[in-house]
Amino acid sequence: MTHATRAMRVEDFDRVLALNAAEVPRLGAIDAALIEQLFEDAVYPAVIEREGEFAGFMLGLGPDARYESPNYRWFADRHERFLYVDRIAIVPEARGRGLGRAFYEAAFIEAAAQHLDVVCAEVNVWPRNPESLAFHAALGFTEVGQQNDPRYGGDLRVAYFERTVD
To answer: What pTM was computed for the model?
Structure first.
């Protein structure tokens, strides 16, 4: 089966919002206004297609985003030149087929092309997301911190991961 990444377009928003909603609480909830802002601010807004059909999306933000997420801000306080993977989701029937890895490989290339020094992401450690933790470790990410997300009254704890851009 073939897959390809491409730039996200406004026409993708309905599918992006539906997939994101299906992935809460692994992903934070977003609405139409927030997806529009994230899209405008993204340095890497991408969609992946499998056999020509929508199979997932990734939103990667750079250092100048207007995003007030405490997780984004955690990285922004520490880095001048970074690509923050705000969210990535793959449709259930396409998981385990290398699409997440393809997204990250494309993001590493994009970060290097934009002279960004590090790719950053966070993963839930409470509630635990063992698949994502193992996935990021396999891609060479290193844990650099943890924090309770204050938006959820301490019921969500994330680990912060980074990988230097080659």
So the answer is: 0.94
